[in-house]
Amino acid sequence: MRFTPEELQAARDRLVPDVAASGLRVLFCGINPGLMSAATGHHFARPGNRFWPVLHAAGFTPRRLRPEEQEELLAHGVGITNVVARATARADELTTEEFREGGRLLAEKVARLRPRWLAVAGVTAYRVAFDDKRATVGPQPRTLGDTRIWALPNPSGLNAHWTPATMAEEYGRLRAAAFAEDGDG
Q: What residues does 149 pair with on adjacent strands?
């Protein structure tokens, strides 16, 4: 789909519904929806975003899903939410207060849904939302109830520090942990 700049701007502050259910293996958590995601109603919808190819390369899905197929994730024990619900053009438009409030609301959501793992796609967003300045990519010592947390690299095409291959390797480590717990997957 192609959108005019005006159509994308009109999507500012819209919400993108979660793809979530109780008892997921992994609840992926983006920073916040971008304007393309808000315009389409699908998570990680910007063409340069590497979430969908990395998810497949890491073994979470049997084929590369398109953003409009996001509901299929539930059949694979996976869902998607965001730290901050409102859409912006760039994550740096969000305030520290929004991240902290988002972290509080996310903790409530996790308590309700009880996924095995919360995977925050953006270690910087995790640091701010959960006031953990020393967090690095990987499993975190903190838990939310019984839910473990994994900070992942942000799949945005702007994150040049991580290649699709190194990103898929890290996401694959999470997949192995999430699905090896009782021999599934």
A: 118
Provide the CATH topology of domain 5-180. Answer: Uracil-DNA Glycosylase, subunit E (3.40.470)
pTM flag (> 0.90): yes
Q: Nearest to residue 12, comparing CAs of 85, 88, 81?
A: 88
Per-residue model confidence as pLDDT tens digits over 119-178: 999 999 999 999 999 999 999 999 999 999 999 999 976 777 899 999 999 999 999 999
DSSP codes, 31-62: S---HHHHHHT-TT-STT--HHHHHHHTTSSS
* Alpha-carbon span 27 to 38, nearest angstrom: 19
HEC sequence for 57-123 = HCCCCCCCCCHHHHHHHHHHCEEEEECCCECCCCHHHCCHHHHHHHHHHHHHHHHHHCCCEEEEECH
Spatial contact of 137 and 166, defined as CB atoms under 8 Å apart: no
Cβ contacts of 145 within 8 Å, gap of 6 or more: 110, 111, 114
How far apart are alpha carbons 69 and 73 in whole angstroms?
Answer: 8
